[in-house]
Structures are given as structure tokens and as C-alpha cells.
């Protein structure tokens, strides 16, 4: 739905009015035939129709486009009163900045911050309401550290509250200890499996080294036997040479 035209100061161009709700365009979209509508209005219209409400030309959601820039600029420059005017706000600002103002307006109704309170008050009166709200909380005067509601003052028991908190802390501590224990056991198991794998690899490497040493010793023995054979042949050749 568009903005109520009665809120605006001065003349509003007909082209800036929604053809469906006849309010000033809000989040506008434009059809190919150049008629403009509020986004909510035209989407609601096209649920039950397939044409423009002004000239009945065929219109599909996929054909809707943002408003022309010059029209958007004209729209944003319009001046209007705050929606809280009847409550006392005298602010007049451009359409472009009205949402920002109304979010911070001292006359806007906002809910009470206290849990359980359903009262809505003007922002400027919030502090006064919070001071007397029956759902306001305050720190226990006995020094237990708890914040209690005024309605719970009679039922509040410092010893019981502290015992409950102590039990919760104990339960939480036990859970944390168990979690830490499981985590450490998991890490130890992982490290143990890793060490077993490393040990297996090292044993295989040792066996391979033993095998290589055995082959080297065998080669050395063969070389030594060949050397003795060669030396004997040389000695025999020397003897034959002397005899000749």
C-alpha cells in the first residue's frame, strides 16, 4: 500500500500515485506500458489478473521494472509529515529519509524491554516506564548476585538459588571433565596407532637392511675366493716361468 497523500506537503504529481491504491508510490515498480504501482499492490493484482489495471495491456511479473530514475528522484524529494504527527511529532522530511526518521522518532511506540511486559510506550517515555514497570528486575539486596523481578521477591530464596547454581556448575564441570577425558583418550589411541604403524615400517626397513647386508657379505666372500684363485694362478705361472 502507498503512502497516504494527506501526509504530503504541497502538490503531488499524478504520475507519482499508485494506479491501484491511489496512494503515493511505495517501493514502486513500472509496467512496460509505463504505469507505476506500489510493489505490494501490483504483485497482489497479478495474482488474480494478467493485465495492467489502467489500460488492460498484458503484464507479467517478469516484465516489471524499477521506476525511471527521474521519477524516482521526484518521488524521493517529496516532503511529508511523520506518521506520529497526531502524537505530537512536528517533523517534515523528504520521502527518501522518512523511514530513517520514523525508526528514531521520539513519538514512535516501542515495546518495553522487560521480559513478560507487553506494554508499548513512546520512545521518549520509555525510561519513565522502565523505572516503574512491574516486570523490571533488580539485584538481590541480600548479596547473592541474582537479578529478580519485583513480583518474585517473596518467592526468592538466596540459599536455594545458590545451591541450584552450584549443582549446575558441578554438572557442567563433570561434563567438561568427561569431554576432556574422551578427547585425551582419542588422541592417545590415534598416537598409539601411529606408533604401531611406524614400528611396522621400521621393522620392515630393518629386515630389508639385513637382507642387503647378507647379499653384500656373500659378494665379499665371492670376491675373496676369486682373489685367492687369481693369486694361485699367478704363483703357478711364476713357477713355470722359473723352470723354463
UniProtKB/TrEMBL annotation:
Keywords: Coiled coil, Ligase, Metal-binding, Zinc, Zinc-finger
Native source organism of the sequence: Crotophaga sulcirostris
UniProt cross-references to SMART domains, sorted A to Z: RING
Keyword hit for Ligase: yes
Entry protein name: RNF41 ligase
A Pfam short name: zf-C3HC4_2
Stretches assigned to the RING-type domain: 18-56
Zinc finger (TRAF-type) stretch: 101-144
A GO molecular-function descriptor: ligase activity
Gene Ontology biological-process annotations: regulation of canonical NF-kappaB signal transduction
Domain TRAF-type: start-end pairs: 101-144
UniProt gene name: Rnf41_0
Entry superkingdom: Eukaryota
Coiled coil: 199-243
